[in-house]
Protein 1
Amino acid sequence: MFVARNIRSAQRYCIFFLVRCDASSEACHHVSEKSLRADEEKQEKEKRMQLEAEEEIKKMRKQMIPHARRMPFFDLPFKPHRSTKSLTVPRSTKFQTLKSKKTIAPSTIQE
């Protein structure tokens, strides 16, 4: 009988250990699935952002219209002319002094 009790108690511990192992493995599996889903969502978001950026670039290219410009005259050299406006004369700065209300004379202060 003594041996049977030890076997029963050992089986209980063994069963409890197996239950804990199962729960732990389920938790690990759940965490790994959650991280995989987060990675997939992140990749999908990056793909969407990239596609949106490419579409925006395509729209911008369609909106850009090249404008023709006149060709410069290479026969006639560029000769700048002196301006007819008068030269600007620098002026000195004018600082405004603030008038204080009343100043207290040092002789009127009593110690």
Protein 2
Amino acid sequence: MAGNGVFADILDGDVYKYYSDGEWKKSSSGKSVSIVNPTTRKTQYKVQACTQEEVNKVMETAKVAQKSWAKTPLWKRAELLHKAAAILKDHKAPIAECLVKEIAKPAKDAVTEVVRSGDLVSYCAEEGVRILGEGKYLVSDSFPGNERTKYCLTSKIPLGVVLAIPPFNYPVNLAVSKIAPALIAGNSLVLKPPTQGAVSALHMVHCFHLAGFPKGLISCVTGKGSEIGDFLTMHPSVNCISFTGGDTGIAISKKAGMIPLQMELGGKDACIVLEDADLDLVAGNIIKGGFSYSGQRCTAVKVVLVMESVADALVEKVNAKLSKLTVGPPEENCDITPVVSESSANFIEGLVMDAKEKGATFCQAYKREGNLIWPLLLDNVRPDMRIAWEEPFGPVLPVIRINSVEEGIHHCNASNFGLQGCVFTKDINKAILISDTMETGTVQINSAPARGPDHFPFQGLKDSGIGSQGITNSINMMTKIKSTVINLPSPSYTMG
């Protein structure tokens, strides 16, 4: 059970503590932040409302801890990460329980997220030992005009303190995707979890605590973004920010200063369907890609761009599959569960009403109860409708009928987002040509967009982000190159 057993230390009465200097603590503010269960719409959990002074203390301990951690051998860092991964997977049930109650993630998917997170941590430990264990050796005479009088040795060194800010929809997995690379690279880590998902993240952090990481190396502060958000992201002790979320990331990037940024800020992932596509395959992927976790995924299919000649047939197949989706509470493993908050549900409803006013075809009746929105396919959507461009982050999917491939590509590239996209066709030559013209970080051919497997590169163009994720890329961006040059008094050539 959440907050019980090995997790008893993280709870004080009905308020979860924050984590600093290897200890679970109550905030001096005496205040808490409530977390509302999306299903019941009642307060489920409470977390500490940390102060700016407590953030200062966290940063100071993180700086000190990082210096000694950087001197810890790679194999020891990896050993602790493997231990944390095992503990995380051993305690998947209570963490999954939190995910169900905090963010209405279906129970089976909640367990999958925790197990996947453990696997990510272990993989990162292995990958880190390999790529950080290698350096480069350069000699000077490869550049014109030089003799071999200089040997250059390069290695990857940590940045310092990494600030990690994951989103509500994967508060465990997208937290460890930042934590594990930072730690294996020799950095310390300060985690600011989302409010919805904070308790899941606190349970995850306790698994790292139980693994025996040094005090101060990992910290987790909770509280209102309005009070500590800017203070965290603009803190002079932060040497790197890894953020996943929405428009807030753009504001962070403008304020952060001269530090490395890794940002994934959402998408409007287009699904382009050609005339020769396997429509059964397409329909299955639209359901999986557009409606899993109620569409609350950055890589969800957000707009279908289908050739007019096959549009009727595709819409019919999607509607048939849509009618079989179960709708209800996450505890019952329903396919469609409540969206994360009332404000999210209201935003989605606004997009739906705009489409209705402008003449979209409703393939199902729009239905909403509280935060629960029934799955809806909108056909004959036009570019003047908000849903054609804005990211609903809910179980509503627009279909735009196109008369040429060029029309579909134009719509995809006209978006301010550029995270992922997909194209369905049996002609691999066409698929590659279309992929090359789509302005997105990733294009999936004959499959829905997806983040993963977790070692694959994951990045967005335009407003969808900065930098690239994926285990290897994250390790690399959380390090910098250090060069040492040996100068010889005279040229020296091996076997010369």
Protein 3
Amino acid sequence: MEDDVFSGLAISQQIEGKVVQTFQKSFVQVQNILDQNRVLISEINQNHESKIPDNLSRNVGLIRELNNNIRRVVDLYTDLSNSFAKSMEASSEGETRSDGRGGHKRVRSGN
């Protein structure tokens, strides 16, 4: 029984470590994209203020790049959310197995 508890804790710690690594990697990627977007927005604004036809036409490509970056951020957050949900499921399954209660949860009264 005691070995089950320790193995459950070890599994939980491994899962937590992987989740933290995934979060850190994803957040760094998101921050890099957001930094790129800041530069793109600045250039788009400068081109718009200049009212020079070549600069205005260049904005079309810059805005497309900005939109693609936004899609990438959304995708990263979606992946992050899915990874987190899966890790929480795996973590709760490990806890259920290691505590010997077989998935029965205590229901609290409304007081």
Protein 4
Amino acid sequence: MKVRVVLKYRHCDGNLCIKVTDDVACLLYRTDQAQDVKKIEKFHSQLMRLMVAKESRSAAMETD
């Protein structure tokens, strides 16, 4: 239930790095492709919307 997401973008060389970890496993993805950068931006914005949505909080509490 606890996950950290870190996005790093270097404008000078156009690299984007996304790191997702739960302190047990760590996933890291790096790209310099514009198409991948746009997909990751869309994924990250959807993730942030879900994390702040009231519906997701109430659903998570019901499953616990």
